[in-house]
């Protein structure tokens, strides 16, 4: 166990009562990179270091003016100053998902940084194929995803998660609630028989697998459910986490434990340095449900809890919809940023029309480009198989590419400097310099393959205009 003194087997009542480790907050990666910090604690016993001596998290580091290795990496990759990243982390406007259990490709998410893309993979009850899931993880990374969510619900999902985590360098996210509900269905006959202690135990166990962020459905409480019931829905409830939790609450007539015992959840997040991604269980699954009362209610609750999480030293992201028509995207982004005090915004899509199954990666890319341009920080990809089937590795690849294109288009507005790549492409096209064009292309192998497949007689031009290549004709008379 990497953290002596961190025990996950205890039931939450014992842990809350003893409060023994409530101040434990260790960024192990940071410690490894800070011999001076470790040195400062040498007068204390090692067990003391890991148990009840307060050790700084990445947020408290930032608030104390310390620039960690992770902040330096993010600053270098994004072309911003280290202090910009430090201030962003300190204020909760930027998160850097880390894990004490695993080294990952460091990725900053939030204000002033490039829009990041997540790819979600995982088995279902119908399709369980571990090699294929590992291939999906590989394709996601190959296509340039920034993070990976492992959401298996079929087969030996714990083993699958372990193997995916072991085979990717990306930050990995998960939804512990799925496992808790599915185990209840398997052992006790129905998801509504889920035991609250199991939910928290599984959350800690998944953290210890080396997951960097977790989508947790904290914002569904009785107020949210009441609004959902009063208003009704055209497209029902499409979030699995939202549906499981709502059904559990109604069946058991109990408050959502993730809301009712949020302090205990934060303890687990702190102990394992997990970034909390506040789930969007009420997201619209149909355009006509966008921005409805249940979704706004959940956002307001999540916003309040997000402030508390940040205050307690837990990095936090807030998730957003869903299915949203283009003319409501700006409202959603502004509302979310305003009520959460500019926490990083994780936009799920959004899907901007409901009538293009088979092309939903493109539909979502339109929504993602607009939402990114308006301030969304993190985009969850959508594959062409959305609403139809579990995606294949090839569809995972295509989904990531579509989202990366969208993120770049958004960043061209949000972060003007990313237009430099487009300038380079413009010049390369003007100069008919094909290698330079491929070097800038988001998916160079595809661009190269299409050209190679239909090579022109004149190697400078392409088969679109052939001998009448407009660029070549003008270049004979002009030097731009
Ligand atoms: S042939 Fe036409 S499309 Fe192709 S490079 Fe020349 S101008 Fe562009």
Compute the number of helices: 23
Gross geometry: globular
Residue windows where pLDDT falls under 50 for at least 5 positions? 1-55
> In percent, how helical is the residue content?
40-55%
Bound small molecules, by name, code or SMILES, are: iron/sulfur cluster
Trace the largest sheet across and list its strands. Answer: 3-4-5-6-7-8-9-10
Taking all Cα atoms into account, the compactness measure Rg is 24 Å
How is the CATH topology of the largest domain named? Answer: TIM Barrel
Q: So what's the oligomer here? A: single chain
Q: How much of the residues is beta strand, in percent?
A: 5-15%
Number of domains: 3
So what's the CATH class of the largest domain? Alpha Beta
CATH architectural designation of the largest domain: Alpha-Beta Barrel
Main pleated-sheet profile: 8 strands, parallel, barrel
């Amino acid at each position: 166990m990497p953290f002596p003194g961190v025990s996950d087997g205890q039931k939450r009542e014992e842990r809350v009562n003893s409060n023994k480790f409530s101040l434990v907050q260790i960024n192990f990666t940071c410690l490894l990179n800070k011999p001076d910090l470790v040195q400062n604690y040498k007068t204390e016993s090692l067990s003391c270091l890991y148990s009840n001596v307060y050790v700084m998290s990445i947020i408290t580091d930032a608030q104390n003016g310390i620039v960690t290795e992770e902040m330096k990496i993010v600053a270098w990759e994004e072309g911003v100053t280290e202090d910009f990243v430090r201030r962003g982390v300190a204020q909760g406007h930027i998160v850097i998902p880390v894990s004490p259990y695993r080294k990952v490709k460091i990725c900053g998410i939030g204000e002033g940084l490039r829009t990041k893309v997540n790819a979600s993979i995982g088995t279902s009850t119908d399709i369980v194929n571990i090699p294929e899931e590992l291939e999906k993880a590989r394709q996601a990374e190959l296509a340039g995803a920034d993070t990976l969510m492992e959401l298996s619900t079929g087969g030996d999902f714990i083993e699958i998660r372990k193997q995916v985590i072991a085979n990717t360098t990306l930050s990995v996210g998960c939804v512990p609630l799925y496992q808790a509900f599915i185990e209840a269905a398997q052992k006790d006959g129905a998801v509504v028989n889920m035991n609250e202690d199991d939910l928290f135990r599984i959350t800690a166990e998944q953290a210890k697998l080396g997951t960097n962020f977790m989508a947790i459905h904290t914002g569904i409480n009785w107020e949210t459910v009441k609004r959902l019931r009063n208003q009704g829905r055209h497209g029902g409830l499409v979030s699995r986490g939202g549906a499981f939790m709502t059904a559990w609450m109604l069946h058991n007539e109990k408050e959502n434990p993730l809301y009712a015992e949020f302090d205990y959840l934060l303890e687990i997040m702190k102990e394992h340095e997990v970034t909390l991604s506040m789930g969007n269980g009420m997201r619209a699954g149909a355009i006509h449900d966008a921005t409805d009362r249940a979704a706004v209610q959940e956002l307001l609750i999540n916003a309040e809890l997000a402030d508390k999480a940040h205050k307690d030293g837990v990095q936090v992201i807030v998730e957003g919809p869903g299915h949203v028509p283009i003319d409501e995207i700006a409202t959603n982004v502004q509302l979310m940023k305003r009520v959460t005090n500019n926490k990083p915004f994780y936009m799920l899509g959004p899907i901007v029309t409901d009538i293009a199954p088979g092309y939903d990666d493109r539909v979502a890319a339109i929504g993602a480009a607009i939402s990114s341009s308006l301030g969304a920080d993190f985009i969850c990809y959508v594959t062409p198989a959305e609403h139809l089937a579990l995606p294949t590795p090839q569809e995972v690849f295509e989904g990531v590419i579509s989202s990366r294109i969208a993120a770049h288009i958004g960043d061209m507005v949000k972060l003007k400097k990313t237009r430099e790549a487009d300038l380079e492409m413009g010049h390369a096209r003007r100069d008919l310099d094909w290698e330079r064009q491929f070097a800038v292309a988001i998916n160079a192998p595809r661009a190269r393959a299409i050209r190679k497949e239909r090579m022109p007689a004149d190697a400078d031009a392409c088969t679109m205009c052939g001998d009448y290549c407009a660029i070549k004709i003008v270049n004979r008379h002009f030097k731009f």
